[in-house]
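worker-3 :: picked Glycylpeptide N-tetradecanoyltransferase
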Amino acid sequence: MTDSEYLEKTLTDGASGGLKKSKKKQKRENAWRPEGPRDPFAMLDSLPEKEQQEIQKALHLFSLGNSLPKTLQQAKKHTYRFWDTQPVPKMGDHITTHGPIDEVDANIRNEPYLLPQGFSWDTLDLSNPSVLRELGHLLNENYTEEDDNTIRFDFSPEYLLWALQPPDWRLQWHLGVRVDTNKKLVGFIAAVPAEVRIYEMKKRLVQIKFLCVHKKLRLKRMTPVLIRELTRRVNQQGLYQAVYTAGIVLPTPISSCSQWHRPLNPRKLMEVNYPGLKQNMNLQRALKFNRLPEVTKINGLRPMNKEDASGIQSLLEKNLCKFHLSPHLSLQEVKHWFLPKENVNDTYVVEADDGTLTDMVSFYTISSRVLNHPVHTDLRAACLLCVVGNTTGVAELMQDTLVLAKSKGFDIFCALDVMDSIGFLDNLKFTISDKSVHYYLYNWKCPLISPDKVGLVLPN
Ligand SMILES: CC(C)(COP(=O)(O)OP(=O)(O)OC[C@H]1O[C@@H](n2cnc3c(N)ncnc32)[C@H](O)[C@@H]1OP(=O)(O)O)[C@@H](O)C(=O)NCCC(=O)NCCS
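worker-3 :: tokens ->
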């Protein structure tokens, strides 16, 4: 049975066939069901939100959640029904060459992949505010940040437009799935164009973003259909490679990095029991340990403005080529990704006395909702996008960045151990979390890349 057929069967047969069913209809359908345990998802669903959360927490504790591999060891024992059919390196392959896995296919199918009856593709026009809101709703309710369901992402419309509409973005690559009867958006995946340097090769490809399936339609093989359809749409535009990241292990990471955290507001993080924060100390000690200077130290450090774009472009061009995986940005892309936007991203540059830009640092904002907490409702994380500390030194630049982020009300600073991060993570009191971020290339093979040779961060 293909993934599409399986999806069709489970969606039309089973308990989650539609998202809303009348009680009468449910009763009729249940009549033929054998006696026995009820569908656990349906049971969970019928409970009040707070109880659902408690159960999810317990499941998380006992690791009965999503069983996809989180480590390479687990991955070696896992059978990837879908990924084993895709042009990606097999787990355990030792790759020493560079190039595409599949040659260009001249016969790209014209018709979209079939969705099961009752569901349709919808290309999302994000310039329509109500569509943008719907996407935000799908992601904010279903793109759960933590398995135990205590904190959820809260992507704003501005953030989504920043992430999904860089220069040359394409409407056809914002791919949604809707339920025919009520038009509810239940699945999404996006691609955005990019040029990436992979070792010595500059490659035009896409970055994959925001893969999300509604919680009630999980484990029904909708993901492979979404990926196939998006791949077809990308291929139609003459692109055959993609770069993406995931927290789970799929065939086959080209690099595996760790997420590091630096508390800016330790009191709040302790109060919301921020997951994965490994600073085992009492509040007084945490406040003292994480204290930061009130003001920045670097002369010439200031927010980026439009006129800085070409200076930043050449700074990046010079500095990112030392990595084996890095973005190659046009002037328009530099403006798009780095020009500060309220609650979306911040960029600071260091300007020398002669007006040249010597260093830069940029981070983006991930806002979250804190669920069912008596005091706190939200959390703001600053996530490092890029840092170039040529003249100043990366540790000094990051120290000032922490001061700035704290003064802007961020609760935590997050960074991956990529680029030159290793030069400041320990010194600036970042702690490693148990979260890994694995980097993948679709239809491209190349030797593995160590985290310090990765110069690319992909915002969600
Ligand atoms: C990620 C998500 C879409 C997977 O949905 P699902 O219902 O668990 O999985 P499905 O039954 O639809 O599909 C299973 C297949 O998708 C693959 N898959 C699961 N998560 C994936 C991911 N993040 N990227 C690529 N493939 C993924 C599985 O490996 C499996 O393929 P296999 O048989 O080769 O192993 C869903 O869990 C979700 O929306 N999670 C919240 C958002 C999120 O974490 N998105 C991913 C960000 S990287």
